[in-house]
Amino acid sequence: MSAEQAAALIQHGDHVGMSGFTSSGYPKAVPPALARRIEAANQHGNVFRIGVWTGASTAPELDGALAKVGGIELRLPYQSDPTCRTRINAGEMEYIDIHLSHVSQFVWFGFLGKLNVALVEVAGVLEDGRLIAASSLGNNKTWLDLADKVILEVNSAHALGLEGMHDIYYGTALPPNRRPIPVLHPSTRIGDAYLHVDPAKVVAIVETNIPDRNPKFTPPDAASERIAEHILDFLEHEITRGRLPRELLPIQSGVGNTANAVLSGLDKGKYKGLTAYTEVLQDGMLEMLKSGTLAFASSTALSLSDEGMREFLDNIDYYRERILLRPQEISNHPEVIRRLGVISMNGMIEADMYGNVNSTHLMGTRIMNGIGGSGDFARNAYLSIFMTASTAKNGAISCIVPMASHVDHTEHDVQVVVTEQGLADLRGLAPRQRSKVIIERCAHPSYRAALQDYEDRAQALARSGRAGLHTPHLLREALSWHERYEETGHMLPQ
Amino acid sequence: MSAEQAAALIQHGDHVGMSGFTSSGYPKAVPPALARRIEAANQHGNVFRIGVWTGASTAPELDGALAKVGGIELRLPYQSDPTCRTRINAGEMEYIDIHLSHVSQFVWFGFLGKLNVALVEVAGVLEDGRLIAASSLGNNKTWLDLADKVILEVNSAHALGLEGMHDIYYGTALPPNRRPIPVLHPSTRIGDAYLHVDPAKVVAIVETNIPDRNPKFTPPDAASERIAEHILDFLEHEITRGRLPRELLPIQSGVGNTANAVLSGLDKGKYKGLTAYTEVLQDGMLEMLKSGTLAFASSTALSLSDEGMREFLDNIDYYRERILLRPQEISNHPEVIRRLGVISMNGMIEADMYGNVNSTHLMGTRIMNGIGGSGDFARNAYLSIFMTASTAKNGAISCIVPMASHVDHTEHDVQVVVTEQGLADLRGLAPRQRSKVIIERCAHPSYRAALQDYEDRAQALARSGRAGLHTPHLLREALSWHERYEETGHMLPQ
Ligand SMILES: CC(C)(COP(=O)(O)OP(=O)(O)OC[C@H]1O[C@@H](n2cnc3c(N)ncnc32)[C@H](O)[C@@H]1OP(=O)(O)O)[C@@H](O)C(=O)NCCC(=O)NCCS
Ligand SMILES: CC(C)(COP(=O)(O)OP(=O)(O)OC[C@H]1O[C@@H](n2cnc3c(N)ncnc32)[C@H](O)[C@@H]1OP(=O)(O)O)[C@@H](O)C(=O)NCCC(=O)NCCS
C-alpha cells in the first residue's frame, strides 16, 4: 500500500502509537504523507490533529513534519525536536513528559485513553506473520498489542541481520497478576526474538527503503573531556575503596557528547568485560564492544552515526552476540535497574546548590526535551551521576544555581554532580554540606562568589530565625538569577 | 546488663543503628541512659555526639532525649520529633532525608560509612540465639548484620504472640548478585520468622518491660472526612471504568488523621477482601482486618493506639493469620510495589498548580519530617494520590501554591491531588491542563482567585514571548506567597 493510502486510515482525533526511539526505528513514509494530508485539510479549513505517542524522540520526518503542519494535539512521552519544542513552548501543542518506564503501563492501565492506531516500522515480516523488529523497540510491543488498527512500515534498509537481536518480553501483565521480570544480567534473554501482531488488525503494510537518520558523531569538546576525566577518577576511587568491582556494574549512559566522552575514556582505561544496561546504544558503546572493554550491552535503541552504523553492519555477527534490544518497559524497568545495580550517568540543564536537578526546563518555563529515562535510572541506580558544563551560553548562564527553576530529580535521587570544574560526591551529606561541595567543586569560578554570597546570606537569614537552617534559601532571590537572565541575557548583574 | 552499662559501650563519634519505626519497636532504656551519659560528658566540657540511624521516626525517649542533650551529630533517614526538628532547623544537627527503601542498601554499599553499633529492641530470644522481633522491623536486619557490636533490648512488654508474624528476607545481596524479590502478593512469605545475630557481636543484653508509646488516635476532622469521601468516590469511579478491580489493589496509606479517615471510609463501604502493602499499620487498618474489609496486610511497623493495641493483643491469633511484618527494604521495595500495583495515599505539605509536591519543607527552608517512604510508593504505585487540607494555620497558608517551595515528588510522579475542596485527576494532562483542574478542584475558595490571577499573568508573560507556555511562571512571584507568609504571617496581602 502507498504511504498516502495508509495515512488516509488515520483520522482526526486519533491517538497514534508510533515506533521510534532516538531517531532509530521510526516510521519514515506515513508520517510525512500524513503531514501532507493534514496540511491539505488545514487549507480546506478543517482541523486535523492527532495524539502522537512514541518510544522517545524521533526524527524530523516524524516529529518535525507533523509539528510543522500543526498536526499534533498532544505529544508524549519525550521529544527533542526543534519544531515540537517551539510549538509546545508557544502553547500550540500539549506535551506530557512521562518517565519512559511508565508509558507502556499507563496505556495498559487505561490512564491515557484508547490507542486507535499503531504505526510501527519493522525490518521484516516472517512467513508466519511474526515481525522482525527494527533498530529500536521502544513501546512497539504495547502499541501492537493495544491498538485497534495496525499500520506497518517494512523498511528494507534495515539489515535483516538484526533478526535475533531483540528480546521481547511477553510476560508483562497487569497487577495483581504481575510476576518478577527475570533479568539477572544485561545478557539474560527473557522473551521472544520477534514482535507479534494480530493479523486481523493490520490495515496497511507500507514498504520503504530509507535508512535511519543517524545522529552525527561530533568529537567531544574540552568540557566533556574534563567531565569524563572526573567521572573516571571517581570510578577508580570507588574501586580502590572496594565500593565497586573492577568490572564495575552495568553502565547506563544518556545521549550526547559528554556521554560519548565518558565511554571513550572508559575505553582507553584498563577496563575489560564491562556491561551496559541502558536505553540508547551510541557510537561510544559500539567502540567499547569492539575493543572488548564492553562484553555485553542491553538497550532499547541503537543510535549510531553513519560511520557507527557501517561498522555495526559490517560486523553484525560479532555484535549480535553482544547486543540485546529490549522493549523500553524492560530496558527502563525500576525492578531490573535496581537489581542489576546500574551506574547511571545523565546530562542535565542545571543543578542547585543542594543537589536538586532540572533535566527538562529552561528558565523554569520552557521545555527542552523531557525527563526521558533519567528518572527510571537515577532513582534505582547503584550510583546516580548527573553532569553538565558549569555554564551555558558563553558563560551567561550558570548551570549551578541557588534554586533549580524546575525539579525533575530531587535531592533524594542525586548522588554525584559533575561539571568540567570538578565532581561533588553528595553521598552521606546533609543539605548545607552538599551546597559547600557543589559550590566549591562544580560551580564555574565566575559564579562561585555569587553562589557563596547567596548561601552566606541565606544562612544568616536562617540564623536570625526568619527561615530554616536545614535548607537555607532567600525566597526573594532564589529564582532571581533566572529572572535576570530572561531580562538582561545574563544571570549576574553586569 | 543495665541500660547504663550498655550505654557505656557507645562512644562519641559512633554511628548507631537503632530499631524503631513510628514509635514502635524502638529501644526504650539505652537511649535515655545514653542521653544522661552525654549530658554528664557535656557538663565536663566533653563533646559527645553520635550518628543515629533508624528505620524511621521513633519516640521522645529516643529522638527527643538524645536531641535534647545535643547528642545527635547526624540523623537519618526520617524523624518527626519536635526537638530534633528544632535542632535541625537551627543548624545544630545534620539530617539526611533518604527514601526509606534506599537506607539499607546505602549502608551495604558502604555509602554512609561504618556502622559501629546496632541497638535493637526485640520481643524475645530463642534458645538457639535467634531473635523474636518486636512491633516493627525497619532496618533491624541490616543493623544486626553490619554493626561491629550489638546491643539488644529484650522487652517483655511485647507480646510473645508476635512470634511468627515477621517475614525477614535473608536473600538480599549486593549487585551483581541480586535476585528477584519473590513477593507476588501481600501475604507471600519469602523469609525467616526470626532475626539472626552473630552471638560473638552481642556486647550487651538489656531487659526491659516498657510498652511502645503508642500514638493517640484522634477521630478524623471534617477536612479529613471530606478528603476521604473524594478518594472513595474516585476509587468507585475507577472501578466503574474498569480501571480497578472490585477488590482494588493493595493499599498503602501514610500515617495520620486523613489516612485513618480514608481507611474508615473504605471500611464503611461495600468492600471485601482488600489487601494492604504498606509501611505502617494503623488503627484504621486493624479495624478493616477485624471487619473483613481487609483480608491481609503487609507492613514494617504496627503503629496502633493503646486501644488498637489492646484489640490486637486480645485477638492476636486472628491477626497473626492476617498480618506480616517485613524489613523496610522489602515493605518499601520499588520492585515489589510496582509488581503489586499499589494504590498509594500520602499526606503532603503543599502542591503547586502543576502537581509538584512538597512533603518535607515548610516555606522551602524548614524541615518538617522527611520524605519517608512516600517516594518509594508514589513513583512505583499503580495510582499515586497526595492529600492535604487546602489551607493550614487557619487559612493563612494555602497548601496549593504557584510554585512548590521544595519538591519531593515531581509532576512525573503525582497522579491525583486531593483536598477537602475536591480531587484533581492529573493523569493524561499536560501542565496547563493540570493547573486548571488543581486550581478549580483543590484550592480553597479564598485562594482560588489569586492562583488564577497568577496563572493568567504567567500565561500572558509567556504569550508575550518572555517565558515558555509549557509551564508558565512568573519567576519574580513564584515564591512570593511563601515569602509574604514569612514576613506577614499570611500568604496573601491583607
Ligand atoms: C539535559 C539535556 C538537555 C542536556 O543535553 P546536552 O546535549 O548535554 O546539553 P547541551 O549542553 O548541549 O545543551 C543543550 C542546550 O541547552 C542549553 N542549556 C544548557 N544548560 C542550560 C541552562 N542551565 N539553562 C538554559 N539553557 C541551557 C545549551 O546552551 C544548549 O542550547 P542550544 O541548543 O541553543 O545550543 C539532555 O541531557 C536531556 O534532554 N536530558 C533529559 C533526558 C535524559 O536525561 N535522558 C537520559 C537517558 S537518554
Ligand atoms: C506532609 C506531612 C507532614 C503531613 O502530615 P499531617 O499530619 O497530615 O499534616 P497536618 O495537616 O497535621 O500538618 C502538620 C503541620 O504542618 C503544618 N502545615 C501543613 N501544611 C503546611 C504548609 N503548606 N505550610 C506550612 N505548614 C503547613 C500544619 O499547620 C501542622 O502544623 P502544626 O503541627 O504546627 O499544627 C506528613 O504526611 C509527612 O511527614 N509526610 C512525609 C512522609 C510520608 O509521606 N510518609 C509516607 C509513608 S508513612
TrEMBL record, chains A, B:
For this UniProt record, the keywords arranged alphabetically read as follows: Hydrolase
Acetyl-CoA hydrolase/transferase N-terminal domain boundaries: 2-207
Does the keyword Hydrolase belong to this entry?
A: yes
Please report the stretch or stretches of sequence annotated as the Acetyl-CoA hydrolase/transferase C-terminal domain: 308-454
Q: Which organism is it from?
A: Ramlibacter alkalitolerans
* Protein name, per record: Acetyl-CoA hydrolase/transferase family protein
Q: Which InterPro entries match?
A: AcetylCoA_hyd_C, AcetylCoA_hyd_C_sf, ActCoA_hydro, ActCoA_hydro_N, NagB/RpiA_transferase-like, Succinate_CoA_transferase
Family, as annotated:
Belongs to the acetyl-CoA hydrolase/transferase family.
Q: Which Gene3D superfamilies match?
A: 4-hydroxybutyrate coenzyme like domains, Acetyl-CoA hydrolase/transferase C-terminal domain, Glutaconate Coenzyme A-transferase
**Gene Ontology terms, MF aspect:** hydrolase activity
Oxidoreductase as UniProt keyword: no
